[in-house]
Design goal:
272 residues, Double Stranded RNA Binding Domain, 5-stranded mixed beta sheet, 8 helices, 31% helix, globular
Length: 272
């Protein structure tokens, strides 16, 4: 499947000189999390819900322009790009949306929700899916959301029939954007995917435990419920969410691997 089949063609844009509050209002009106930023008709950036400070970001948006808060380095795709290529690009750069350009002209946009949902469902070529809040196009299926299950393997190589791990990602208000959630799901697949048959479910929670004061205040707590074994619960903190998430997932991988090795090494009890 190509981005040309999945992309939303009615792209919502905003001028870089408009206010950040106007961008927030436009996102809420259209129920979207990203706006493509233009200046004199040319593509100059992308601004996300997280760039604007989230639901409680009034101070972030106050007296600020879109150009001040946007991400100026635009990473884009093409209509011929595959979903796997788009997933690799978005997760590698930790971005939540991908403008689609053809011959230098903006022709559409896809989000991490769109791409991961299509990959997670193993969509067949020619099947059109649409992300939350996007109007359906002729021939598309019903509106779908980001699945709460993660393929055993990385989204880099989607396969049909792979074991899945039910996963729930929760965050305090404003912590995570779609790019962050996409990153978590991919990294979780890479770290714990090989244990899929031994895992019942995974819960991940992130939180800013100190607030705007800064410091080592970003927390990631992971709970892995294993089949027939004690539940693994741990947390890690760091100055950034990405680092806290990576450290927590690495620790979870080691803990699960150790638990399974101990179970296999334990000698069977002799009958009385």
């Amino acid at each position: 499947m190509r981005l040309g089949e999945l992309m939303q063609q009615r792209v919502k844009t905003i001028d870089s000189h408009e206010s950040a509050s106007a961008a927030w209002s436009r996102m809420k009106k259209h129920r979207i999390r990203h706006l493509v930023v233009t200046s004199d008709g040319a593509l100059t950036g992308v601004i996300s819900e997280r760039d604007l400070g989230g639901r409680h970001g009034e101070e972030t948006r106050k007296n600020r322009s879109v150009g001040e808060l946007m991400s100026p380095r635009v990473i884009s795709g093409t209509p011929e790009m595959t979903l796997g290529q788009a997933a690799d690009l978005m997760s590698g750069r930790i971005i939540g949306s991908l403008p689609v350009l053809e011959g230098g002209t903006l022709v559409g946009i896809v989000t991490a929700t769109d791409v991961l949902d299509a990959l997670g469902r193993g969509s067949a070529r020619g099947t059109r899916l649409t992300g939350r809040g996007h109007p359906r196009r002729p021939g598309s299926v019903r509106e779908v959301r980001l699945p709460e299950v993660l393929p055993k393997i990385s989204t880099r190589v989607p396969r049909m029939g792979a074991p899945q791990i039910p996963v729930r990602v929760r965050a305090s208000e404003g912590d995570l954007g779609m790019g962050d959630r996409a990153y978590i799901r991919q990294r979780l697949g890479e770290r714990l995917g090989r244990f899929a048959t031994a895992i019942e479910r995974v819960s991940i929670r992130t939180e800013d435990v100190i607030g705007p004061r800064g410091g080592i205040d970003r927390m990631c707590r992971i709970k892995v419920v294993l089949k027939g074994l004690p539940t693994v619960v741990l947390e890690r903190r760091n100055a950034s969410f990405t680092a806290a998430i990576d450290e927590a997932l690495a620790a979870a991988e080691e803990a699960v691997d150790r638990a399974l090795r101990q179970r296999h090494a334990k000698p069977a009890e002799r009958p009385a």
